[in-house]
Queue: 3 jobs
Job 1
Amino acid sequence: MLISTIKDHRFIDNFNRYRYLLIQLIIRNIKLRYRRSVLGIFWSFLEPLLSMIVLTIIFSSIFKGFGVSNYPVYLLIGRLIFQLYSTATTAAISSITGNSGIIKKVYIPKYIFTIAGVLSSVVTFLLSLVVLLLVMIATHVHFTIYMIFASLPLIALVFFIIGTGLILATLAVFFRDIRHLYGVFITLLMYATPIFYPPQIVPESFRFIQTLNPIYAAIVCCRTVVLDGTLYDPSTLLFLVGSAIFTMVLGIALFYKYQDRFILHI
């Protein structure tokens, strides 16, 4: 009964009807991102690889890698996942205002633009995983069956990002300043998330920030299965799934409540 109700929901029905358009929008976003670039899509591989090399040299020489074993893989996992969240949500913010010309002329479910912005970043993220795989091989990471389970937190993270993107896209239509404020927030969040450093160096009184951070939950899960070769704590995954469900419900509700007013503000 519940599954039938969800399948018949207008959100799902429109999503199935406009799948082809969604794919075309994803391709367009990726082309626009690398337009007039000499290396084009290869930057998806080069950018994380070069950043990892530079940051590893800096932190390994100055901070001795904070005593973290296999610091390159530790750093790359954290950076790739946070970069996915950062680029996807930033793309979602301008997904409605940036496509105002199309939205004003023809009827298309507006959330398609937001989801396309998020999924184009997901495609880039998947391509950049090739770099992670090569670094894992180069640093002699022991491959285990548990690595398959890294897909679960990543799927939950994508739904969390889509929900966050719907909220941000709605707010950006009525408050253009949100785009600039969000840039500041992303910078603060990056330094508050143990991407470059181990979580133990954060004072005990501030560790609640890590505990309440769904992005860090995804990072912890992936680091555990890759670097420790064991399964992550199920409660960490449950927290991430719960955050994704809550954000998706809130994002869809907010978007549907205000989407009819978008046309007056874009």
Note: The first helix runs from residue 2 to 7.
Job 2
Amino acid sequence: MKPLQPVSAGARVGYGIAFFALFVVVWSIATFGGYVQKLFLADPLTMVAEGWNLLVNHGFLFDIGMTIWRVLGGFVLAVILALPFGILMGAYKPVEAFLEPFVSFARYLPASAFIPLLILWAGIGETQKLLVIFIGSFFQLVLMIAVAVGGIRRDLVDAAYTLGASDSSVVRRVLLPNAAPEIAEIFRLVLGWAWTYVIVAELIGSSSGIGHMITDSQALLNTGQIIFGIIIIGLIGLVSDFLFKAVNQRLFPWAQA
């Protein structure tokens, strides 16, 4: 191997699958070999059996659907509101100077710390869970979008003004088209973070969702179900990541080089 030498698409897929296989082998050796007690870590076969039991006998598909709905609901709400704020902050420096200190402060506040207040304000229904994801995603999105828009090359802006573009035209026809591929990548990254927030939201005061199932399984010391729930979250995240990449490549082919 040479530093920074690219690999083919086929080799990349092969390496990725090989790591998953290695992970299962190590897991099997640790559990079937008796190095780790079943109380602390279920073996792969037990995990599959417990997962099948959840799907067939306990309506786990409904829990998966609820968790996906919460992630998408909170994330889309955050995108709708963060996009204009981020563009304004990136394009206009006075707006950036006005908002950036608060946004930078707020993005370090853990969304989980707001759960007691959100339960007080919104109860333990869907609104509270959507707000946890919204708070965890919104401020990150605003700042990252602002950085993407504000980082557009200055010579492109100067060239647009030289050709007679107005201020609004510079934003619409120079800043936004050039920042769009990076903004799409920001959406992909922050959607992954939203999955951590929804599990936290479902751990408290929830009667459905993957996080709720994990909490119930913890009370029963059922590590097979806990691991199955974690793997389902990873698989859904992986699928959404691939979908985002495919859509981004389709929409912005010039940015994939």
Note: The longest helix spans residues 167-203.
Job 3
Amino acid sequence: MLTAPVDSPPARPSLPPTVFWRIAEGIPRPLALLLMGLSVLVPFSLWWGLSVSGWVPPRFLPSPPLVWAALMRLWREGLLWNDTLASFGRVSSGFLLAAVVATPLGIAMGAFASIRALIEPISGIFRYMPAPAFTPLLIIYLGLDEAPKIGLIFIGTVFFNMLMIMDAVKFIPKELIEATYTLGGRRWQVLLQVITPYITPNILDAFRINMAASWNLVVVAELVAANEGLGKRIQLAQRFFRTEEIFACLIVLGLIGFLLDLLLRRLVRLTCRWAFL
């Protein structure tokens, strides 16, 4: 019995070659540099054009030259340097304290289900409490000096660091741990010589991401009670309607965060080259 031949489905046309829309692939270095430059130049040009168009009064939207002049004035008076140092010191102290606490706890929570069951619920509850809401309690308990500001940054970052490190530990290949035990490794060797080195890039990435939150919180802390700091400078500028100083302080905050981000990325590249092979 003869059967009718089955027609094969028509071949789909292949995707046109593209550079810009390639999924999960890199782009040429010149194109990357061009796009990075545009990401800064386009918003800057829009700001400059809008500020000189006359549509918005200069007191509400100062032009870049006005902001630059305010920046230079704050620098000459020594206020910008002192405020930046004060804010940087608070962020460094609070975030370093949070990192010291979060790293061993996150590793222990990821490695031991018992520790995870003990700590994860309460840390999950604290994580959803807005850190600025702790400010009144911190002032009552710790006073108005540096301690409540550092405490606010610690509370606002420690739980996020801890949970991100815990998640990194959970994705370690089981084969690595089993191979260590097979070769006679002890439990502490698995923790210190297998798990910790393997997740070091993830730890640094978690710090890089959560560092932004610490800078947000230091501004909140300085708005409440401080004699110096970039947040305090913004509050004083708002009180006297000096929008150009507010813009200047915001730009300084953004540049500090950007430089710290680049520094941590570079640190990951230098200390964890094996992760990029």
Note: The CA atoms of residues 174 and 180 lie 10 Å apart.
